[in-house]
Design goal:
By secondary structure, the protein is α/β, with parallel strands linked by helices. It has 3 domains: 3-103 and 319-339, Udp-n-acetylmuramoylalanyl-d-glutamate--2,6- Diaminopimelate Ligase, Chain: A, domain 1 (3-Layer(aba) Sandwich); 110-126 and 225-311, NIF3 (NGG1p interacting factor 3)-like (Udp-n-acetylmuramoylalanyl-d-glutamate--2,6- Diaminopimelate Ligase, Chain: A, domain 1, 3-Layer(aba) Sandwich), CATH 3.40.1390; 131-219, Alpha-Beta Plaits (2-Layer Sandwich). The protein is 29% helix and 29% strand. The chain is globular. The mean pLDDT is 94. The chain contains 11 helices and 15 strands.
């Protein structure tokens, strides 16, 4: 199996177009055309992780965090980034990162995994993004089902993993005074699929010059965005919830703001640095906002409206390794994966 097949599957779950502008997700080192012998799954591509792959005889490392965020001008091993890249190249090991694009998806995303670990139900994206376009295409009734199914096949109209939605209006078109029955199909699709959508229309439509329009949609996509919010099945006292959080997420300590003497029912989460979502967490009436990387003065922003619980960056995302393993092994049952045994957390606690 080629490395490209692994990448294509990962990107079907978390398309690269969903990553934030500062990010560098994707194949960072290596050739997609190479045969894949196995993959080490990790949060961070460190030298120890590359050594782990070498020892196992695997030629791929799949990480959550990109090892390279900006351009490298020299490769002389003066810092860990250069050393990792050099070692990977020398040993023919591909490094692939799936970062904020995996953060930004609802199904099989980083925040969905956190929500699962702490037992949230009725979850939804905390801050949905505008990512969709809308297609209007006119087609003869005899070909409407064929075209609709072809569009569904490439990802248009998807509302969850197993369901698709479109609308059809029957009318009459006319050209040079001659009329004929026409079906107007309407379907939403993620903007990154536009090329495939157009190609599908041109391939499947019975007319040489099919009539269609594509427009931008300002509505938010409820399946794409930052963070997640949901409910506990049963409300808990704040201190009891913090103990539950500490145990379920496997963290050594939690930094939190003053309890509000409320019971915790609604919970907002964001793996990694999620402080930018505090306003949305409050607007969603969350009792607690779980994230990481809060600075001292930022804790004051809770302002008696919510309890902030900072569980640490690595700790909030550590189960992303298990998530990646689930995504890959569900699709490729005979492909060798290894969840790293290396603790790549650069932060230690006494």
């Amino acid at each position: 199996m080629k490395i490209a097949e692994i990448i294509n599957h990962l990107e079907s779950v978390a398309p690269p177009s969903l990553q934030e502008s500062y990010d560098n997700a994707g194949l960072i080192v290596g050739k997609a055309s190479a045969e894949a012998t196995g993959a080490v799954l990790c949060l961070d591509s460190t030298e120890a992780v590359i050594d782990e792959a070498i020892d196992l005889g695997y030629n791929m490392v799949i990480a959550h965090h990109p090892i390279v965020f900006k351009g490298l001008k020299r490769f002389n091993g003066r810092n860990y980034v250069e050393r990792v890249v050099m070692k990977a190249i020398k040993n023919d090991i591909a490094i692939y990162a799936i970062h904020t694009n995996l953060d930004n998806v609802y199904h099989q995303g980083v925040n969905a995994k956190i929500a699962e670990k702490i037992g949230l139900v009725d979850t939804q994206i905390l801050a949905p993004k505008q990512t969709h376009k809308k297609l209007f295409v006119f087609v003869p009734p005899t070909h409407s089902d064929t075209l609709r199914n072809a569009l569904f096949e490439v990802g248009a109209g998807q509302i969850n993993e197993n369901q698709h939605l479109s609308y059809a209006t029957v009318g009459a078109g006319s050209q040079n005074g001659e009329g004929a029955a026409q079906v107007k199909l309407e379907v939403l699709f993620p903007a990154y699929l536009q090329g495939k959508i157009v190609t599908t229309i041109e391939t499947v439509h019975p007319f040489a010059n099919p009539s269609f329009d594509i427009i931008n949609i300002e509505n938010s996509n409820t399946l794409v965005g930052s963070g997640m919010v949901g409910n506990l099945e049963k409300a808990m006292p704040e201190k009891a919830f913090l103990k539950h959080l500490k145990q379920s997420m496997g963290v050594g300590c939690i930094k939190y703001t003053t309890p509000l003497d409320n019971k915790v029912k609604r919970v907002a989460v964001c793996g990694g640095s999620g402080g930018f979502l505090l306003r949305q967490a409050i607007a969603q009436k969350a009792d607690v906002f779980i994230t990481a990387d809060y600075k001292y003065h930022e804790f004051f922003d809770a302002d008696g409206r919510i309890m902030i619980a900072d569980i640490g960056h690595y700790e909030s995302e550590q189960y992303t390794i298990d998530l990646l393993n689930e995504i890959i092994t569900k699709k490729f049952r005979n492909f060798a994966t290894h969840c790293t045994k290396v603790n790549t957390n650069p932060v230690n606690y006494l």
